[in-house]
């Protein structure tokens, strides 16, 4: 009676994010508390908040579980309340939350360094959607026309299509042209050697 059903979904672990299934820590995987009291890691919340439609007066993030809205502060997802209960369950060296901030679509954290102005002292991850915001303009000329050709993207298809056209010409079209010219399929005239 106490054994779990093998077909039932895996219960959510209190020490891992229910979206990405990574263990919480005190940096990018900091447990962030939504207004509905569901907890997700900072990286997942930041990814969800960057996917919200632009030009809204206030960013309202729907909870992935219950759809209750949570207001995202102006500073972004790092400014959401951290779940102190979950942070306390982590190993002692991970219980002190690090300072994180958003720079555009990058989630940034300063590593312990003597020089805070050193760009190498910060680590960041991009939490934006994988598609570029503005499409790149194709180059001009033949290269530009080929880059706009959907079929030209796959060079193997082009080579295969070219080989098929050559085979079609050699096996089918050339004998037909020969038959129309000579009246039979003998296109090569044999020279008879006189002895």
From TrEMBL:
Q: Where is the RING-type domain?
A: 17-67
Where is coiled-coil annotated? Answer: none
Query: Could you confirm whether the keyword Transmembrane helix appears in this record?
Result: yes
Question: What processes in GO biological process is this protein linked to?
Answer: protein ubiquitination
A Pfam family in this protein?
Answer: zf-RING_5
This protein's source sits in the domain of life called Eukaryota
Q: Does this entry carry the keyword Metal-binding?
A: yes
Q: Which keywords does this chain's UniProt record carry?
A: Membrane, Metal-binding, Transmembrane, Transmembrane helix, Zinc, Zinc-finger
InterPro entries, sorted: RING_finger_E3_ubiq-ligases, Znf_RING, Znf_RING/FYVE/PHD, Znf_RING_CS
- From the record, give the transmembrane residue ranges: 158-176
SUPFAM superfamilies noted in UniProt:
RING/U-box
As one GO molecular function, the record gives:
ubiquitin protein ligase activity
Matching entries from PANTHER family are given as: RING FINGER PROTEIN 223, RING-TYPE DOMAIN-CONTAINING PROTEIN
User: Would you tell me the protein name for this molecule?
Assistant: RING finger protein 223
The top of its lineage is:
Eukaryota, Metazoa, Chordata, Craniata, Vertebrata
